[in-house]
Amino acid sequence: MPRSVNSVASRARRKKILKQAKGFFGRRKNVWTIAKNAVEKAMQYSYRDRRIKKRNFRALWITRINAGARINGMSYSQFMGKIKANHIDLNRKVLADLAMNHPDAFKAIVDKIK
What CA–CA distance (Å, rounded) separates 92 from 110? Predict the structure, then answer.
């Protein structure tokens, strides 16, 4: 009985990887073994950096809230402590947007918690 290798599935698997490698430089985009390694590494980076992106945004929001709070005469830690104590349920993303784009609304929040 002849050996069956299912070349249809093998080719489809390779085409999928090479499609993911589209836009890579040099042999990384069209040589199977190199492309496979490059795509695997790219997937590891994308998995890791989805988590790092969340950290970076939180740090940015904290910086913006701190700047807005200091303009109104408070530190970030004092501001966040009083926000929690007064049961104001606004997250850092919203507070940062207010501090950056709507300083009057942010000042109203600061005046309410002082």
Answer: 14
pTM flag (> 0.85): no
Judge contact between 72 and 106, C-beta under 8 A: yes
Task: Decide: 110 and 72 in contact? Cβ < 8 Å.
Answer: yes
Give the CATH number of domain 7-113; options: 1.10.10.10, 1.10.1900.20, 2.40.110.10, 3.30.70.3450: 1.10.1900.20
- Could you tell me if 32 and 14 are in contact, meaning their C-beta atoms sit under 8 angstroms apart? yes
38 vs 41: CA distance, rounded Å: 5
Phi, psi angle pair for 33, to nearest 5°: -65, -40
Question: Tell me: the pLDDT tens digits for 46-55?
Answer: 999 999 999 9
